[in-house]
Amino acid sequence: MATTTDPAAGARTAGTASDGDGPAIELEGVAKTYRAGRSTVTAVRHLDLAVAPGEYFAVVGPSGCGKTTTLRMIGGFEEPTAGTVRLAGRDVTGVPPDRRDVNTVFQSYALFPHMSVADNVAFGLRRRRVPAAEVRRRVGDMLDLVELTGVASRRPGRLSGGQQQRVALARALVNRPGALLLDEPLGALDPLLRQAMRAELKRLQREVGATFVHVTHDQGEALAMADRLAVMAGGRVRQTGAPAEVYERPADRFVAGFVGAANLLTGTVRTSAGGDGYAAVDLDGGQRVRAATAAGPGARIDLTVRPEKIRIAAAGTEGPDGGANLLRGTVRDAVYQGPATHYTVLVAGAGAAEPVELVVHRQNSAAAGPALRVGAEVRLTWPPEHSHVLGPA
């Protein structure tokens, strides 16, 4: 362990203690099943995952997808039914939590109400019999880092939710763990405080340089904070990648619909891709778009386009589209959201075809023009590169 007097430098040393460029955290073939009466419940299914040293990694998914179970297996609070858990290259499968180089911050924070802030932060150091002078120095340095020096003598009950969270973070980081595990750390905070604490967590992670694994059901939180993220559903990872990659190029319908808002469309390829790389696709709603796909004529495909990629205008405002996709429809709903208005548009089908419903987000700027009323006839346009073809479920 580093002997520097800088707590951030100490955490950086611990966080990058793997032998070379190997993962800080690695799960190989990990699975977890439970007995429920006569049944077997599978929480995690053959999971392979690697988190790099110093990375802010988020695991996002709906309730019951297996994300918290995965975090608990990394921390040692649950043992996998199958597979291997490695920390900095060391196999820790079967090793108890107090012998793993990780700390966990839970949603409840689990602070000791009868202890002061300083004593809460010092708790782990004293259990490890760190000399008293070293405890005082490291606690002081950590309280400086989380900007809580002025409340060191208070008890947790006299602190705000954000301050309690920072105490929990300080207590977890003061031991200089190789990785910090965060289980829905912002879930107990009100929306405004949650926004502020996102920036606070990122600041702390950058300053200490440790590996963070953050579990959340809030996809916006994961997109805003993570260097990389994994989207889970049904005990499996559906996609892993940088936030922009997962958002812009979702792997399948689940990822597209869960990570941000998405228009999910189904159609039949009419003509193969031409020289520009785009194929003509007849939507089930009866109108036609272009999308990049290698599928041949007659193939059924799913595609998505994000609501903010679509330009909406009144039907009479014709103009050059420069090869953009063009659909015509009717405004069914308009919801004012402050910076933007969210429109729901019914795109009429041909003959007996059911209409397709698309959501469009338009900024409320001076350039956008007057608001569109419900019932207005509109035209929707977007570049074909934003028609992203999805893989199979």
Automatic annotation (TrEMBL):
Stored SUPFAM superfamilies: MOP-like (SSF50331), P-loop containing nucleoside triphosphate hydrolases (SSF52540)
Keyword field: ATP-binding, Cell membrane, Membrane, Nucleotide-binding, Translocase, Transport
Pfam families per the UniProt record, alphabetical: ABC_tran (PF00005), TOBE_2 (PF08402)
Occurrences of domain ABC transporter (ranges): 25-259
Coiled-coil stretches: none
GO MF annotation list: ABC-type polyamine transporter activity; ATP binding; ATP hydrolysis activity
PANTHER family named among the record's database cross-references: SPERMIDINE/PUTRESCINE IMPORT ATP-BINDING PROTEIN POTA, SPERMIDINE_PUTRESCINE IMPORT ATP-BINDING PROTEIN POTA
Family of the protein in this entry: Belongs to the ABC transporter superfamily. Spermidine/putrescine importer (TC 3.A.1.11.1) family.
Protein name stated in the entry: Spermidine/putrescine import ATP-binding protein PotA
Organism the protein comes from: Marinitenerispora sediminis
Taxonomic lineage of the native organism: Bacteria, Bacillati, Actinomycetota, Actinomycetes, Streptosporangiales
Gene: potA
